[in-house]
Amino acid sequence: MSKLNVCELFAGVGGFRLGLENTDHYQVVWSNQWEPSTRAQHASWVYEARFGGQNHSNLDIETIATNEIPDHDILVGGFPCQDYSVATTLKNSKGLIGKKGVLWWSIHRILEEKKNKPKYLFFENVDRLLKSPATQRGRDFAVMLKSLSDLGYAVEWRVINAADYGMPQRRRRVFFLGYHKSTALYESLKTTSESDWLMDKGCIAKAFPVETPSESPELFELKHDLVSLSKKFNLGMPSSPFLNTGLCVDGKVFTMKTTPDFSGTTTSLADILQNGEVTEDFFIPKEELSKWAYLKGAKKELRTSKTGYSYNYSEGSMVFPDALNKPSRTIITGEGGKSPSRFKHVVQTEKGLRRLTPVELERLNMFPDDHTKLDGITNTKRAFFMGNALVVGVVEKIGAALAEKIHTVD
After folding, report:
1. Residue 248: active-site member
2. pLDDT digits over 109-149, tens only?
3. What integer is the mean pLDDT of 196-210?
4. Are residues 203 and 348 in the same domain?
5. How would you classify residue 405: left for phi > 0, otherwise alpha for psi between -120 and 50, otherwise beta?
6. Catalytic-role residue among 7, 81, 203, 248
7. Using CA atoms, how far apart are residues 393 and 49, in angstroms rounded to an integer?
8. In terms of domains, do 213 and 332 share one?
9. How many domains does the chain have?
């Protein structure tokens, strides 16, 4: 089987590339990483240092013409979580124009304009995508599914917590695969029952098995055009109709609640620690322990806002220090730096309490050690990268299952 050509958008420091190329079934032929909020393009620097600068773009994707992007078999990316609503239609435009700066519409534009459309799609996002925004639960995902359906793609999705399948971090993300109607995989999906595909025969089910569900699936259709869907979908309803697993084919949605089925070995936080290799600056000084304990502790207190308004504030306690015998909590972008924090990880070692190192954070996302180490990149920035990254092992397993399924049906 020849390798599938990959276009990687919103590449960050290359988590998708690592996962896919680890399977030996994929090769990245073009990549793009551009951070709009900063002049220094740190993530792109790391990406180029690890994979080379050839066929890598560090320009705003919205400014890149589709014909400058080479044809590819699979389009991948962890695109930013934004408001994906449709802004307007233009009388003389080819189609719909989304809100400026919303990068989903860059994906849509590439798929719409490519004469040779990619056969497969592989995207990742935060799991709240399935229930955003608060005023129209599930609208954003409905807009995506409908737009992909209109472009000729069937889509399957699953919310996956990496720790549920033995990986070292509790990180919940929605992963979705798209299959173009020109592919044998699309035809295979069309001739398989929805429940069989999602439970056993589909790509994600092969990679991440689930138990037989006890609840009946939900069925509904995305009937309206994108403008109407954006304005009216699920308006005023208290919950999203999208469950953690599902399919959308020809605008028809089949969705169900699934539970992970895993009995293998689990990697714990203790398993990834750099024992004996950590410098003093990661240890918490004794005089600051009380600040950390306060921030991580339970609170019920009267507070006053800047405007003088008084209110009762309460929050529960965090585990402090973090449990070593379980997968870690989710890494966030503010993980780095010495300042006390409620959300940073703290572990107990023989030498005392300390924060996690950049290498340990990389290991929690299953990156190679020192993947983000580069002159001019601070430890705080390295932690930020990992707060934005995905778990490489999830991409690798889905990528391997997708390649195997393509090989089987072709």
Report:
1. no
2. 999 999 999 999 999 999 999 999 988 999 999 999 999 99
3. 96
4. no
5. alpha
6. 81
7. 22
8. no
9. 2
